[in-house]
Amino acid sequence: MATRRKFIQNTVIAGAALSAGIPAFSSVPVSKWVSRRPEKRMRKFQSKAVEETIGEIQAFLGDSELAWLFGNCFPNTLDTTVNYSEKNGGPDTFVITGDINAMWLRDSTAQVWPYISLTASDNNLKELIAGVINRQVKCILIDPYANAFNDGPGKSEWMNDLTEMKPELHERKWEIDSLCYPVRLAYGFWKATGDTSVFDASWTEAMHLIIRTFIQQQRKEDRGPYHFQRVTGWQTDTVAGGGYGNPVNPVGLIVSIFRPSDDATIWPFLIPSNYFAVRSLRQIAEIAGAVVKDEKLRGDATSLADEVEAALLKYGTTVHPQHGEIIPYETDGYYNFNFMDDANVPSLLAMPYLGTVNRNDPLYLRTRDFVLSKSNPYYFSGIMGHGVGSPHTGPDRIWPISITMRALTAVNDYDIVSSLKMLQTTHAATGFIHESFMKDDPTKFTRKWFAWANTLFGELVLDTYRIKPELLKEI
Q1: The CATH number of domain 4-474 is 1.10.443.10
Q2: Which single residue of 41, 72, 348, 451 has CA 20 to 30 Å from 268?
Q3: What is the pLDDT of residues 331-353, one digit of tens each?
Q4: Can you give the residue ranges of every domain in the chain?
């Protein structure tokens, strides 16, 4: 089992197929666009609706390489990462992130999210996603502060971290978004299918626990129960302040000790994640009122959402010397701000994608201009592409997720077309999307098997096909 840190290396690999059943990756161009998917007998899960969608879109696309890339990437989560079973009379789905054999609450949601819209014609797919929701609930109840889990009790290379590890945990980094993504998945599933079977007593218990955890991390009375340190030479893999992070002024915002990159925050109030928390709390409140009929849950979720939203209005904006009033990435409640963005979602760039701001809001547009400029220290531009990177992978590495997100939050057609073209020309002839690539040489990439990036690219093609199909003809 390996950590994400160990994939910050060049990984263009040819040779035998990987043990998970995915084809070997090669830097050699593939003749006639041969599929890079596993053989059917090796695929983890097969969906009729997904296969029909792939066939329909590939037939429409005029560009053979784009059609090939979509065909490889869109089903990658189902092909290689899901383990479906039935436990205690209900569906249960464990979803690994790819080349790390563990389930992240964030990644597992993002990996299956694009398939929700296809569940109407595929009951097996619907049950698979219900299984993800059920498994996420179990994970939250094990430990709401953990970001990644084993498939039951097992071993982790991080068992010696200076925090309260349990055998079920792969890693215990407290990130607000780890509790928001499962809410997003359950809410989206309910709205798409009308299925309320996932909202059982365990789900309700988990939602109460989410609210208690958020309140603990407002740190009004004390620093709360969570602390984390790691013996490492990688600074962003451990936490300042004796494991509690840098000091905060308890103004109503929620502390996130780690970012969605799994890197430690500098100022612990991570602004895009606090916006995401508000959105998730309002979704919990809606489900509590309409489905589970839990007035305490509805009231607690609404009250906390109102409080965090009010704090964001007061402490979640500031004036940048070049870009005017924008949303900063982090703050501490003492009016210290971090002017940057990270490719991992939730990010400033991705806020409209998550439904936390309107993409036409002038505040967001100014923030977007900042993110996609040299004012953002993690915006990189080179011969082969331009986009947002991350401290997680270091200088000059662009994350394809940020390129995809630029298109999914686009305010014009150019952002969509240019992003699709950039993704098409930077996969290093592998047929898959990677974690990051060097701005001048995409063959120097990290993470050869990163299902979130693959499926998100498929989501972009699918959304474009549904909303503005003519743009796909420009590729």
Answers
A1: no
A2: 451
A3: 999 999 999 999 999 999 999 99
A4: 4-474
